[in-house]
Write a structure and sequence with these properties.
Radius of gyration: 25 Å
GO cellular component, one term: membrane
Strand content: 25-35%
GO biological process, one term: ubiquitin-dependent protein catabolic process
Pfam family, one: zf-RING_2
Structural class: alpha+beta
Shape: elongated
Largest sheet: 5 strands, mixed
GO molecular function, one term: zinc ion binding
Bound molecules: zinc ion
Order of helices and strands: EEEEHHEHEEHH
InterPro entries: E3_ubiquitin-ligase_domain (IPR051826), Znf_RING (IPR001841), Znf_RING/FYVE/PHD (IPR013083)
Oligomer: single chain
Distance between the termini: 22 Å
């Protein structure tokens, strides 16, 4: 994948809104999530040593809302059940669905974990005070997420060479990688990749080179201009 997402929580707060309609059987506890998302765009450039730099693409931001009834509010007394409920809720919110919220993409604790910790602590406190049973709670969770989409030009370039160039060297070939000089048949590295100039290298060897240069390491064939971040294409 040439685009990775880095997600961080810019702000998280909650409010517990007291429910007074105790006689109304249709009312149960509920959670309302209001989430603001700001997307920023960056690229790791060819010759950029792997460091992401911000693209000129303007930030995009939007707000999305979701409310869910929680018929059995005893789930808030159990951290794991609370986390799972919030996780499901976030994953199903229409304007969050396109973001990859998997745990690896978060800079720190994922939002569902942090929000679950907060609501769970509140529930435990209420329970210790003897106020939990029979009460109804409406939680308003306000979340502000910052998502940085990082396009990797070196990764995209390796992919573009594999897709756009006739691949003539098989993984079992006796030919050697032009960078580490090991034969591909030894199979200790990644699969061979032919560049448009036909020189072949292990994918991981040539990827490392593209962080420092934009030419074939053997013949200096110029490989610049073959890839661009999807958002720069949109802006063009
Ligand atoms: Zn190699
Ligand atoms: Zn070459």
């Amino acid at each position: 994948m040439a685009v990775e997402a880095r997600i961080s929580i810019a702000d998280l707060s909650y409010k517990m809104v007291p429910e007074h309609k105790a006689g109304d059987l249709t009312t149960c506890s509920s959670v309302h999530i209001r989430c603001k998302v700001t997307v920023k765009y960056a690229s790791r450039r060819l010759r950029g040593n792997g460091k992401p730099v911000r693209d000129r693409q303007p930030d995009k931001s939007w707000t999305t809302d979701e409310s869910r009834p929680v018929p059995d509010h005893s789930i808030f007394l159990r951290y794991e059940d609370t986390r799972r409920a919030l996780q499901e809720m976030l994953a199903s919110m229409p304007r969050l669905r396109d973001l990859d919220l998997s745990p690896d993409n978060w800079e720190a604790e994922p939002a569902a974990e942090r929000a679950a910790g907060t609501l769970h602590r509140f529930a435990r406190g209420e329970n210790e005070q003897g106020r939990w049973t029979g009460a109804r709670y409406r939680f308003e969770v306000h979340l502000s997420l910052e998502v940085t989409l990082v396009f990797s030009e070196p990764r995209a370039l390796v992919g573009a060479c594999v897709e756009g160039t006739m691949q003539t060297v098989a993984p079992g070939s006796d030919e050697a990688c032009g960078i580490c000089l090991e034969e591909f048949s030894k199979g200790r590295g990644s699969d061979p990749v032919n560049l448009p100039c036909e020189h072949a290298f292990h994918a991981h060897c040539v990827l490392a080179c593209f962080y420092k240069g934009n030419t074939c390491p053997v013949c200096r064939h110029d490989l610049s201009g073959l890839v661009a971040a999807p958002w720069t294409k949109l802006a063009a």
